[in-house]
Amino acid sequence: MNAPSFDYAALAPMLIVFVAALLAVLVEAFAPRARRFVSQVVLATVGIAGALFAVIYLATQDKAVTTAGGAVAIDGPALFLQGTILVLALLAVLTMADEDPESGAFTAQASAVPGSSDEAKAVRAGLVQTEVYPLILFSLVGMLLFPAANDLLTMFIALEVLSLPLYLLCGLARRRRLLSQEASLKYFLLGAFSSAFFLFGAALLYGFAGSVRLSDIDAAVSDGATATAATAVVGQDGLLLLGVGLLAVGLLFKVGAFPFQSWTPDVYQGAPTPVTGFMAACTKVAAFGALLRIAYVALPGVRWDWQPAIWLVAALTMLIGSVIAIVQADVKRMLAYSSIAHAGFILVGLLAMDRDGIGSVLFYLAAYGFTTVGAFALVTLVRTSTPEGGIGGEATHLSQWQGLAKRSPLLAFTFTLFLLAFAGIPLTSGFTGKFAVFSAAVDQAPWGPGLVLVGVAASAIAVFFYIRVIVLMYFNDSVGDAVTVTRPGALTIFAVGVGVVATIGLGVLPAAALQLANSSSVFLP
């Protein structure tokens, strides 16, 4: 047996982030406490930026390769998604770094019991939880590997590497610690179940094809008959379909699709808001990248078996996310159900099963990611006021957003822009993204037109709860001094500014981005 070959240039984006994560651990262990925060921020920023430059360099080479013994495929979709993830992660890290350590989103000491004297002592001492940056970097390594994984075992490893740090990050909120820890535990338990389903499905597909490589699974499907012992016992079709179903459970959980979406609102609400923004944007991009690769590389030969099920999942995801969002009274929970609905819209493009479908999904993921990071960055700026006149926690109840336009017109206008993009209003990136996925799906008879009609109906329902927030901000009386809008730092202004430019630019002049997405829509076999 020959040793697998490694193309380290192709793996450079992941290796750069991984090295940065290791260095961040060393900084946490050996650097003086007073210097850790700046060191971690600089290291995370430089590492992500370096990986982004590596992705751009690889894209200019126009050369798709498989490496690591065929376990990793660096092709058009992988590079597009890796670049998108890195840009969104960089914006999220800048938002985290701009938080005031004394009133920021992260707890002063994660190991302290909420409300204990140890926690109060850590707050008085001004401790900062700088471990969030190596955790972000390790999670980012998994996110970069997930859409590039070319076999099910590598994909499972990537899934766990991206998930485990997120479980910890969700429990590090500075305020409402119990809610944050509940979110972390719920995410961990349900995530562990979904990972188990994914692994069991991978084992069944290995039994069917005799290999975990995606191209080998496709070849086994095309051959129609395999001679493995497992297929002799269970039956070929049963083993294949059961494996595909269990695999789908693990991936649909990560994208927040029905009926595996129940974790989303609780985790989005309880996690520190900068982490929520990072998770909502980057995790969805990575998970949909893996879902695309499995659907288009491993399972195109059985699409007539799994397409009806995904059709139903997409339709229910769009409708349930849009309908339940109407009754939400917390802005983070509302954005969580909005995220669920958007997962359904993206599934519409996935079902097209052609290059137009891949390109539309890639564009939608990028457009949605920029808007999401910007929206959650703005949520961090709306805070409660303490009786002493200081800054309290985030004001996420919708009643606290009443009259916000009178207090901060620019913030209200920017948040309105993001909401209109989520709703898919023309001249925003959201409209272009929905138009792209609907256009790719509408010609796919017999299921396409019906699913597009469901998507249009869900979009119309979603407009209602977005408009409700806009009305609250502009036409209701202010809540007085109970809520304050903090002055954003330069890093937050930059992150939100990039989100605004992308939201408008991808809506008004989307041709270049659509062309880039379409040119990146070819998977390696």
TrEMBL record:
EC code: 7.1.1.-
Boundaries of each NADH:quinone oxidoreductase/Mrp antiporter transmembrane domain copy? Answer: 149-458
Instruction: Tell me where it mainly resides.
Output: membrane
Ribosomal protein recorded as keyword: no
The membrane topology term of the UniProt record is:
Multi-pass membrane protein
Q: Which GO terms describe its biological process?
A: ATP synthesis coupled electron transport
The reply on keyword Translocase is yes
What's a Gene Ontology MF term here? NADH dehydrogenase (ubiquinone) activity
Q: Which reaction does it catalyse?
A: a quinone + NADH + 5 H(+)(in) = a quinol + NAD(+) + 4 H(+)(out)
Coiled-coil stretches: none
Q: Where are the transmembrane segments?
A: 6-30, 37-59, 79-97, 132-149, 155-173, 185-209, 229-253, 274-296, 308-327, 334-352, 358-382, 410-431, 451-476, 488-517
Subcellular location as annotated: Cell membrane; Endomembrane system; Membrane
Give the UniProt keywords, A-Z: Cell membrane, Membrane, NAD, Oxidoreductase, Quinone, Translocase, Transmembrane, Transmembrane helix, Transport
Q: Name one Pfam family in it.
A: Proton_antipo_M
GO cellular component entries: endomembrane system; plasma membrane
Q: What does the subunit comment say? A: NDH-1 is composed of 14 different subunits. Subunits NuoA, H, J, K, L, M, N constitute the membrane sector of the complex.
Q: Name the PANTHER family on file.
A: NADH DEHYDROGENASE (PTHR22773)
Q: What does this protein do?
A: NDH-1 shuttles electrons from NADH, via FMN and iron-sulfur (Fe-S) centers, to quinones in the respiratory chain. The immediate electron acceptor for the enzyme in this species is believed to be a menaquinone. Couples the redox reaction to proton translocation (for every two electrons transferred, four hydrogen ions are translocated across the cytoplasmic membrane), and thus conserves the redox energy in a proton gradient.
| Sequence similarity | Belongs to the complex I subunit 2 family.
- This protein's name: NADH-quinone oxidoreductase subunit N
Q: Which organism is it from?
A: Kineosporia babensis
Which gene produces this protein?
nuoN
